[in-house]
């Protein structure tokens, strides 16, 4: 039978989350790397034109939160990282939404965009994203125990680690001022699935 396929891009933290889950949940999913920038043909698979995108028999699944639930449905026994979509969905989607803000700010900065008109929007989007990121991290740090959810490592810990490690390689900021989060992310960074999915250094595009 044809296996499910995950389309991913090397630097993408959302893709890395799915790739680490595929490794640690021992799933029969083929991972297919796409070059950066993504070719327009990705829009045929995913109308948002983004990775990760998961193709299973008869279904194409995105965005990342939905893919994590599909991957969980493919597991045959509970394995770390643990995931209870009903209980954990708000936390996971909040972390992934923080990731959207991180990616958006990085894209604005790397695109060399600068303000050329008077700002009539009422907020500075880069500083608002920075606030979003810092408030989310402080909120997560404040409620975490051994892991973000009690004493069991969860998909939420993996998502957070993928995003913060991505920031080190693409758009550094001082997340290590949050001590509980730092302990969680550093512990995960030494694990086998994280070691096998380390992104290559960023290559500037002309
Ligand atoms: N909210 C999306 C975010 C996915 C995303 O931002 N993917 C980036 C790579 S990290 C991408 O495909 N960018 C290509 C583009 O936007 O053209 C999700 O949860 O899957």
Characterize the structure shown:
The protein is of the alpha+beta class and 206 residues long. It has two domains: 70 residues, 3-Layer(aba) Sandwich (Glutaredoxin), CATH 3.40.30.10; 108 residues, Glutathione S-transferase Yfyf (Class Pi), Chain A, domain 2, CATH 1.20.1050. Helices cover 50% and strands 9% of the residues. The chain is built from eight helices and four strands; from the N terminus they run E-H-E-H-E-E-H-H-H-H-H-H. The chain has a four-stranded mixed beta sheet with strand order 2-1-3-4. It is globular and about 55 Å long. The site of glutathione (GSH) has 13 residues, from helix 4.
State the share of residues found in helices, binned by percent. Answer: 40-55%
The low-confidence parts are none
The largest beta-sheet arranges its strands as 2-1-3-4
The mean pLDDT is 96
- Specify Rg, calculated over alpha carbons: 17 Å
In short:
This protein is an alpha+beta fold and 206 residues long.
Provide the fold topology.
Elements: E1 4-9, H1 13-24, E2 29-34, H2 42-45, E3 53-56, E4 59-61, H3 64-73, H4 85-110, H5 125-143, H6 155-170, H7 179-189, H8 192-195
Parallel strand pairs: 1-2
Antiparallel strand pairs: 1-3, 3-4
The chain binds glutathione.
Glutathione binds at residues 9, 12, 14, 38, 49-51, 62-64, 96, 100, 103.
């Amino acid at each position: 039978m044809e296996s499910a396929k995950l389309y991913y891009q090397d630097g993408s933290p959302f893709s890395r989350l799915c790739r680490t889950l595929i490794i640690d949940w021992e799933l029969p999913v083929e991972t297919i790397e796409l070059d950066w920038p993504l070719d327009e043909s990705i829009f045929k698979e995913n109308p948002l034109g983004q990775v990760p995108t998961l193709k299973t028999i008869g279904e194409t699944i995105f965005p990342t939160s939905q893919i994590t639930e599909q991957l969980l449905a493919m597991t045959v026994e509970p394995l770390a990282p643990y995931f209870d979509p009903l209980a954990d969905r708000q936390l996971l989607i909040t972390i992934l939404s923080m990731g959207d803000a991180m990616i958006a700010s990085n894209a604005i900065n790397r695109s060399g965009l600068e303000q050329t008109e008077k700002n009539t929007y009422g907020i500075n989007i880069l500083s608002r994203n920075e606030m979003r990121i810092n408030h989310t991290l402080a909120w997560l740090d404040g409620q975490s125990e051994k892991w973000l959810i009690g004493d069991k490592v969860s998909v939420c810990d993996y998502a957070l680690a993928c995003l913060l490690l991505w920031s080190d390689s693409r758009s550094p900021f001082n997340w290590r001022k949050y001590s509980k989060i730092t302990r969680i992310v550093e512990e995960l960074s030494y694990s086998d699935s994280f070691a096998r999915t380390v992104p290559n250094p960023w290559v500037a595009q002309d």
